[in-house]
Design a protein that fits this description.
Length: 489
């Protein structure tokens, strides 16, 4: 959508339509800059020569360090004065509400503004073929993996990932190649545009990993979620491609809306590509992938876990479609270093290995625990989970979490943060979950705060343990505190 030829009148609300942009844009201010996607956009704007500033309420690693390394100043807290002197353009993140002091000042001053997806279209994606990776689970790792496969093939892709790929050391890149690889988020765009972000990305090649109910703060139920993915699928042009996970029946039900070719992958008995002979060893996972014509590809990858193997399979039809040679694909799969906060090894002290992961949905928690236990099968696994996301702080998944921790040897769950923002009748109960887990015979512990949690971690841990921290936030920096405290003990 092109900018309209009129300037918005001063008001107390903003419109989802692109408003007129100034001929020269020097200073760009990002509201909610510490979100992974917003920080990536900030980096893109900085690289293009703009003066970039930002504000946020929650400033924590890894994105705070990422922005600091780029010399992008971050103002902590939202106040009207952050828009003085007035920037040439404001990017409004989806954490910003219509009553945010900066949003009110933005409307009062009539400064031109864009949502994150609109800004990506204007500043980064024009003239590129979009490779959109979407689904309830696996988006970040799959996006980073595909970007790395294109990079090792010499295609010099542009990309934006909702995390920091270790191969690149940053969450974005502006390449000279024809492709833009982007993580397609089904979450809403901005308070003035409640549609999902991925509808703005003009998908040409789309990977669809999974569809489950999530984001209970904006979606009513699974059918509501499916509507968004259905709209995305219908946007793929006839000369594009949809690559879909055949193991997910909801995904397969929605693929009927595609007007482009469809290729599937599966861990079981897939139609087009399927995995077999999966073996997890100390440093690598080995597997064979077979296509419908009987062709066999032997793969070696540092990724582990069935969910990661499933996501990896999507690179086979993608590479064939883009003309990437198998030798180059295999080199990319073998050398991929993963993404920060996705089964990331934070360190090992006194024989205790500390892992950090972004898992928060019940399915992601279950699959992550299972993957870690399979890889470190000779070690005791302590699973520490913070129910922090907008959905996990609600009781919508209360029962599902009770079957997510079966493979853990010890489970620790603190009180959810920010529960005051959720009506009492809708709040998740950490204490209730711990009682449910105990009734199943699992060793589970509840904590009213993270200080007590840290004390118990230090008391219970011993040499040989693996501690898996799971949260979609900073988790009060508990992984780092654990390593530091163990070192001193």
């Amino acid at each position: 959508m092109e900018p309209q030829n009129q300037t918005p009148a001063p008001s107390t609300s903003l419109s989802p339509e692109l408003n007129v942009l100034p001929d020269h844009i020097h200073h760009v201010h990002l509201m909610g800059i510490c979100g992974t996607a917003m920080a990536s956009l900030a980096g893109i704007l900085k690289q293009e020569g703009h003066l970039v500033t930002g504000s946020d309420q929650n400033v924590y690693p890894p994105m705070s360090g990422f922005l600091k390394d780029l010399s992008i100043p971050v103002l902590e807290g939202y106040i009207a004065e952050n828009l003085h002197p007035a920037p040439d353009l404001v990017i409004v993140g989806n954490v910003i509400t219509k009553l945010n002091p900066e949003a009110l000042e933005l409307a009062r001053l009539s400064i031109p503004y864009l949502s994150l997806p609109q800004a990506l279209q204007v500043f980064a994606m024009k003239g590129k073929k979009s490779i959109v990776i979407c689904g309830t689970h696996g988006k970040t790792t799959t996006t980073a993996l595909i970007a790395w496969v294109l990079e090792t093939a010499g295609l010099d892709p542009s990309f934006m990932v909702g995390g920091i790929p270790r191969d690149f050391g940053k969450s974005f890149k502006l390449g000279a190649g024809p492709h833009f690889v982007i993580e397609g988020d089904e979450y809403d765009t901005a308070f003035f545009d409640k549609g999902p972000k991925f509808l703005h990305y003009s998908p040409w090649l789309t990977v669809l990993t999974s569809i489950e109910f999530d984001h209970a703060d904006i979606y009513k139920d699974l059918d509501h979620v499916r509507e968004s993915f259905k709209k995305l699928i219908r946007l793929i042009p006839s000369d594009g491609l949809l690559i879909a996970n055949q193991d997910d029946p909801v995904v397969m039900a929605e693929t009927k809306h595609a007007k482009c070719p469809l290729v599937t992958y599966s861990l079981e008995n897939g139609r087009d590509w399927r995995a077999s002979d999966i073996t997890v060893q100390e440093d690598f996972t080995y597997l064979k992938a077979r296509n419908r014509d009987g062709r066999v590809v032997e793969i070696k990858t540092p990724l582990y876990g069935r969910h990661n193997v499933s996501n990896l399979l999507s690179t086979l039809p993608l590479s064939a479609f883009l003309g990437i040679e198998t030798k180059s694909l295999l080199r990319g799969l073998e050398t991929f270093q993963g993404v920060k906060r996705r089964q990331e090894v934070r360190g090992e002290t006194k024989g205790v290995l500390v892992l950090d992961d972004f898992a928060h949905h019940p399915t992601a928690v279950r699959e992550t625990i299972q993957a870690v236990k399979e890889k470190y099968r000779q070690r005791r696994l302590i699973a520490v989970f913070e129910p922090r996301s907008n959905s996990s702080r609600r009781n919508v998944f209360q029962e599902q979490y009770a079957v997510s921790f079966d493979k853990a040897d010890l489970i620790m769950i603190p009180e959810p943060p920010m529960t005051e923002k959720i009506p009492k009748e809708q709040r998740f109960s950490s204490a209730g979950l711990v009682e449910d887990l105990k009734r199943k015979g699992l060793r589970a512990f509840y904590f009213s705060n993270t200080d007590l949690l840290l004390e118990e971690i230090l008391r219970q841990s011993r040499a040989g343990d693996v501690i898996l921290f799971m949260s979609n936030g900073s988790f009060d920096n508990i992984p780092a505190k654990t390593l530091q405290s163990l070192e001193k003990s």
